[in-house]
Amino acid sequence: MESGEGQQDEADFQEPVSFQLIQISSFYNRSLEENLGSGWLGELQTHRWVSNSGTIIFLWPWSKGNFSNEEWMDLEDLLHMFSIGFLQIFHNSVSQRQLEYPFKVQLAGGCELHFGEASVGFIRVAYQGSDFLSFQNRAWLPSPNGGSRAQHVCTLLNSATVAREILHKIFFETCPRFLTGLLDAGKAYLQRQVRPEAWLSTGPSPGPGRLMLVCHVSGFHPKPIWVMWMQGEQEYPGTQRSDVLPNADGTWYLQVFLDVEAIEAAGLSCRVRHSSLGDEDIILYWGHTVNFQALLSLWNEIPAAQGSRRI
């Protein structure tokens, strides 16, 4: 691929774009530990593995990026070697009475691409959910709040010269190259436009004479979306949004709430704007809510028709 073409492909994605590996290790005693690993492109999980075996599972057809099978085997070996040594350091710290079983360690390592600039690698370690260590300039550094425990573990990790070189190679050299290829391999999937589906309901009553109106919007991609309760062409004050949460298929889901006097609900509408809709907003009018809920009850009592679609 020519460099100009690659830059154009990358520029199609929102920046910065990140890829990271996360390993969660639960230490129960000297002979029992549990290790779970996952790989994430932004907020999308692309890989998982059980660190004890080191075998990486690809969750999407494009999760291998442009790496060959041989490159993946080499990467699996490097990750497995590092994981064994990394876990042993923490067991040794227990033997030296710096740590006590049981405890949990989380490692996040990866890279970010800021298009037009140099990539940025990172490795961070948390102990019992708090910042503990970081890896910078080929050396481990304790967190300011890590105390003597973090300093002790850093000393042990920094004594492993080969492991530090492996880390630098994986996250500061291999990761940016892999991330660029992953974006290219998954471009069609990552940039797909999926129209949202929307429907209305009521939530728990906020009080006498009041209604909690809920606008549900689901199945959309990409993530950015605008949803608002409206009165005519004016935004109705008091709209509250939930977090935008992922669906299992890689699309997104959102709820938007409005607490109103029941007598004010008639004539309100929920408006949805999304890139997949072009200039055609979805508008759902609360004046039709009673009929909609009746239809929804009937819908749930019969098998869904092939190809039917909620709106």
TrEMBL record:
Ranges where the Ig-like domain occurs: 176-276
Chief place where the protein resides: membrane
Listed InterPro entries: Ig-like_dom, Ig-like_dom_sf, Ig-like_fold, Ig_C1-set, MHC_class-I_related, MHC_I-like_Ag-recog, MHC_I-like_Ag-recog_sf, MHC_I/II-like_Ag-recog
CDD domains the UniProt entry points to: IgC1_CD1 (cd21029)
Keyword vocabulary terms for this entry: Endosome, Glycoprotein, Immunity, Immunoglobulin domain, Membrane
Originating organism: Diceros bicornis minor (South-central black rhinoceros)
Protein name (Swiss-Prot/TrEMBL): Ig-like domain-containing protein
Annotated Gene Ontology cellular component terms: endosome membrane; external side of plasma membrane; extracellular space
